[in-house]
Structure of Coiled-coil domain-containing protein 47:
Amino acid sequence: MPTAASPPPLRALLLLFWGAIGIQCMTAAAHGITDDEVEDEFLTPDPPPRPFATFSWLGLPSRVSRISMYEICMLQILLCFLLRFRWGRRENERIKALFLEQCASLLSEQFAYVGPGSEVGREGSQPAEGRPGKEEDLVAFKEANACFQFWASGRRHLPRGMAITVDLQPRQDLLHVLRARVLPGEDSVTLEAGLSPEDVPPIILALSRRLHHRSLHLLTPDLLHHTSLLLLPVLLPDLDTAHFVVYADNAAPVPLALPPRLARRLNEHKHFFDHIHISDQNSTPVG
């Protein structure tokens, strides 16, 4: 018969072992936890396979709608500016060349020297008195992409010559082109000639379109302070009084300055005419 100090039988040890395992399984089942569901902090799951270069994978729709669309629009606007600048500058050059081609023959017949940078008027190539310059010598000086100027000299009663300024619309400017859709502008040619004081009596005279005569009268000091509006039907019966207005300090020399032949020619081209201003109060030299 075994004593109390002797080891327990093997059967009792096995019962205790399986009993402990059963209790542990029952506890785990009660809490609903398995070994597969236990999260391992050192376990890194494999990433899902990436699709090949699709818009959803790259995230392009959101980026394009927020950032890239602004950049694309700015690039398109910049490209429009560059293309408009190139085309507009070429168009103004074409208009300038066409104008010089049309008036080269007339200026070469009336003046001895025409155009800056030309061979006419240089040492060793000066034409004789009354000899016209060459038509191909008429070269314009480019002051801006829409403004050109050239000179003509060598004529009696014009000691300082004549400056011809071709002021075109800035067709190379996209903003100006868009504004011109609402407020259209026009090209202009300005002739400035310095008359000889010995050959021309003191006079202040202005012939203007009726549409612009008030602004011309208010912005020109000598017209504002020394002239008044004249009655054209009495002085100039050949001039279209519905379209033209004349300011002068003295009515006597007006029929001599505007003869009937000139009046009829102005009536024919009245839509291309802006104003004529003759004054002995202008001390600014031509050019």
User: Anything to note?
Assistant: The first strand starts at residue 113 and ends at 114. The CA atoms of residues 111 and 155 lie 6 Å apart.
